[in-house]
Amino acid sequence: MKSLLRIAVLAFAVITFAMPGTAAFAGTPQTKCPVMGNDINKDLYADHNGKRVYFCCQMCLPKFKKNPKVFIKKLESQGVELEVVK
């Protein structure tokens, strides 16, 4: 009986923490440049379709602007939650 209770509690915990929208799946803020991978400079950014993307240097902006969807997808696949801008 104790084993059954342990299994039920464990199953509940796994399901609860594995659900999207929980802390386990919360996106992390952007800290790295999507182009070069260096630390971002909060003064260098581009807005694309309501999302703000930060960069490490001026050289990265033109590369991003050539194909922004690729870089946004890269960040989001890494669990980065981009800032929403209006």
Quick description:
The protein is α+β, with helices and mostly antiparallel strands. The protein contains three helices and three strands, in the order αββααβ.
Which spans have pLDDT < 50 for at least 5 consecutive residues?
none
Please tell me what the overall shape is: elongated
Number of DSSP strands?
3
How many strands, what sense, and barrel or not for the largest sheet?
3 strands, antiparallel
Strands across the major sheet, in which order? 1-2-3
Percent of residues in helices:
25-40%
Q: What number of domains?
A: 1
Number of helices: 3
Q: Average pLDDT, to the nearest integer?
A: 86
User: Strand-residue fraction?
Assistant: 15-25%
Structural class: alpha+beta
What is the N-to-C succession of helices and strands?
Answer: HEEHHE
Rg over C-alpha atoms, rounded to the nearest angstrom: 19 Å
Please provide a written account of the structure.
The protein has 86 residues and is of the alpha+beta class. The chain has one domain (2-84). It is 40% helix and 17% strand. The protein contains three helices and three strands; from the N terminus they run H-E-E-H-H-E. It has helices at 2-18, 60-66, 68-77; strands at 41-48, 51-55, 83-84. InterPro entries: Ferritin-like_SF, RNR-like. GO terms for molecular function: oxidoreductase activity.
Task: Name a few traits of the molecule.
about 90 residues; three-stranded antiparallel sheet; 3 helices; elongated; oxidoreductase activity; Ferritin-like_SF; Ta0938 protein
